[in-house]
Design brief:
elongated, 15 helices, alpha+beta, single chain, about 500 residues, 7-stranded antiparallel β-sheet, about 45% helix
């Protein structure tokens, strides 16, 4: 039985290895690039800093009228922005679609023209563009599904030293992506390779998700079988009284065996954690609140918030590049965004109009969380400190103003709320905390006491990546030798 299992695993490891050996090599090489050259993105703060202020004095359509004009009955978000010089409401649905309603005319705005996109880009970078391409639905740097509601885009090129490219949505006129030539070059050998991210595949999210999940899963099986076989062959070689060798093989196969014995566990943990990065709620819980939980946390619908807000109220806000309507525990609020974000609440004095700065309290947050998770008590509320192992990670951190609300359910759920914006940023139960260590801990060595110690962390992770790449390289050579043998035999 043992011999039969060994023969089966040998065949399985050989077949899968031939198919995946190049993937392993490119994953390790591109992973090293990705550490220092992350995928291009335009940060929220940078976007707001370069956006045009809204001329609130020109708004004549009330927020409620804008919702009614959009035809979206239960909006998930309601914002006010500037669209090529005119104020506009952006009404988001729960199905990741949106409508843009003119703040002066009360009807849906037409798509931003090429000339309009040029003006928006000029204002954003304060220089004239060299070329405008589009509108286009996809290219390499806007393939993520978070851009879906805003498609198509104009791609606008500049002749500056960094060869900057901006992406302007034809739907909202917002600049939502920015890339520079160095970022694009590095990411073609970094993120695009590492995530198997070519546009032709990634634009079909479900297909890409299933394909990369399957490849990663087969990689886990391949390495797991290889570790088992490597130990078996090592023990067999050591039992040979004449040689007492560490490997019964020679040539490239011997190097593959010996490197596998020394790096197999490291390779396995990386491939396993890489596979888990594609989990997407298959095994572990979702870190995002449901639409119903968000609505319950708010306490009132956005339509009610809009109904309570008049045009005169909006005109008292002052300077803003974006407004977003929301609520916490039944209290209507507006998030005013400039270079930063500040919550405002309607004045409570009878007969008064306008918004005044508002500071959330922990009591209000607790009330909202208990509305969203009814029947559960709150054990404690505390700030998420900068050294928190769950809230501040190498690959993504909570806002500095985040608090953690501990619930008393069996899953020991943590609800994280940003006190500056009044938004739920994460829901983390036991399943999600385990995922943090299995993915972040194993895949990027995000381990307290190590990750913050640079360059120690860099030396360690680059050394392990190099070892994994060399091991994978031996697999490429061995695999292709097997392919050529079969080819000649055929």
């Amino acid at each position: 039985m043992a011999s039969l299992l060994t023969r089966f695993l040998t065949l399985l490891h050989r077949c899968l290895g031939v198919m995946l050996c190049l993937f392993f090599a490119m994953w390790f090489l591109s992973g090293a690039v990705l550490i220092y050259h992350p995928f291009p993105s335009l940060s929220e703060s940078e976007r707001l800093a370069h956006s045009v202020n809204i001329d609130l004095a020109r708004i004549v359509i009330s927020p409620l009228s804008a919702i009614e004009s959009s035809g979206i009955q239960l909006p998930a978000r309601l914002r006010v922005i500037d669209v090529d010089g005119q104020p506009a409401y952006v009404v988001h649905s729960r199905k990741n679609t949106l409508k843009v309603i003119g703040g002066e005319i009360g009807t849906e705005l037409t798509s931003v023209t090429k000339d309009g996109a040029k003006r928006i880009a000029e204002q954003f970078l304060e220089q004239s563009p060299a070329e405008i391409i589009g509108p286009l639905d996809y290219d390499q740097w806007i393939v993520h599904q978070r851009f879906d509601a805003y498609r198509p885009f104009y791609r606008i090129h500049f002749d500056d030293l960094q060869h900057t490219v901006l992406y302007v949505s034809t739907r909202t006129g917002e600049v939502l992506q920015q890339t520079r030539r160095s970022e694009r070059v590095w990411n073609y050998i970094g993120a695009v390779v590492h995530w198997i991210y070519p546009t032709i595949l990634r634009q079909h999210w479900a297909l890409w998700d299933q394909l990369v999940w399957l490849l990663s899963f087969l990689g886990v099986i391949t390495v797991g079988a290889g570790i088992f076989l490597g130990v078996v062959r090592f023990r067999q070689a050591r039992r040979n009284i004449r040689s007492r060798a560490s490997s019964p093989f020679s040539g490239w196969l011997r190097w593959h065996h010996l490197l596998g014995l020394t790096s197999g566990v490291v390779v396995f943990t990386w491939v396993l954690s890489g596979w888990l990065s594609m989990d997407h709620d298959r095994l572990f819980s979702n870190p995002h609140p449901t639409a119903q939980q968000i609505q319950n946390f708010q306490g009132v619908s956005l339509s009610q918030v809009a109904e309570d807000t008049t045009v005169l109220d909006l005109r008292t806000i002052g300077v803003a590049t974006e407004l977003e309507f929301l609520a916490v525990s039944g209290r209507p609020l507006v998030l005013v965004k400039k270079t930063d974000a500040q919550l405002y609440a309607l004045t409570s004095d009878e007969g008064s109009i306008g918004f005044t700065p508002f500071t959330l309290t922990k009591d209000v947050i607790i009330q909202g969380v208990q509305l969203a998770w009814p029947g559960l008590g709150v054990q404690q509320v505390k700030e998420v400190t900068v050294d928190d192992s769950y809230g501040h990670l190498r690959e993504g951190s909570f806002p500095k103003t985040t608090v953690r609300v501990w619930l008393d359910d069996t899953e020991q759920t943590w609800v994280h709320v940003d006190m500056q914006t009044g938004l739920i940023v994460s829901v983390m139960d036991q399943s999600r905390r385990i995922y943090r260590w299995l993915f972040n801990g194993l895949h990027s060595l995000d381990i307290p006491g190590l990750v913050e110690r640079r360059p120690l962390w860099d030396v360690l992770i680059l050394s392990l990546l190099t070892l994994g790449f060399l091991f994978s390289l031996t697999g490429v050579v061995v695999g292709w030798k097997k392919v050529l043998e079969v080819w000649r035999f055929a």
